[in-house]
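Researcher: Sequence of Y-family DNA polymerase follows. Predict its structure.
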Amino acid sequence: MSARVMSILESFSPTVEVYSIDEAFLDFSDLSPCTQDPLAYATQIKQTVKRYVGIPVCVGLGPTKTLAKLANFAAKKWQQTGGVLNLSDPIRREKLMKLVPVEEVWGIGRQTTKRLNQLGIQSVWDLANQPAKTIQAQFNVVVARTVMELNGIACLDLEEVAPDKQQIVCSRSFSRKLTTLDELSRALSEYCTRAGEKLRLQQSVTGCVSVFIRTNPFAVHEPQYQRSATVKLDAATQDTRTIIRVALSSLKAVYKPGFGYQKCGVQLSAIRLAASPAQCDLFDLATGVLPAENAVLMQTVDHINRRFPKAISIASSGFEKSWKPKAERISQRYTTDWRELVWVK
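Model: Prediction complete. Tokens:
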């Protein structure tokens, strides 16, 4: 469904940055239909997506990406906008900024908000009126760029090609509490397999593997425990077998019996391109503890997993799957499953 929405958006602009699964930036600077009547053009986008895909969307317009995000926020929050808002007008922009708290600005996190509030900066308008150099000295260049963007000075270009991920995290909450090391190992192995697949998809290798486990922090009357462990690899890898071996070794180090674990996960970091030059270890894999890299094998595994999606979990963590999160309230797959087609009466 996300791909369908993005393909429709691409028909309205030659330059599209897919920001997330449900959000994108479009460049309208060279489009005469948008220049003549921006609101009408944005409304047409909203109506087309709704008609072709069935998903309601909101459209925010502005001279910068930060202002467009702010306009989109307002279009969602206030129904009188009709789901479309243009912040190109400085008067309308000022009126909105005085109403919206500073924490709603794109890129302003919780800790930054606390520091801004301590300085008397409560609204978006307060932040926009701060000198960019002063903000950079007190915070960083990112917040300074945000101030400039709020004043209509574009500092962030559209990224038509998504950059490679610098970290890959795969984790899930369990449908029931896990108490044994064997059950946690099965779950963690599957998460490592997923993470390795994502790593190879962007042609990268990882130099650091982190593992974490935790109990349910909301079960205040039950014993609480959470730990994590990180291993820096001597040689970067994209081999799932190596990632699983290192992750399971870390899991054994942090696992403690007597607790009901609610979640575990793996994080791959120190990621770089597989083709980039790197320092090799003279004694790499000399002990035979870790398997040698086998790119052909991993390519074959990825091909099988794409063709038979359920094979990945069987290969990595066995047949028993009672710990997997349930999907009892999942939306119907009207467009991808014959058994869930819409019935018209």
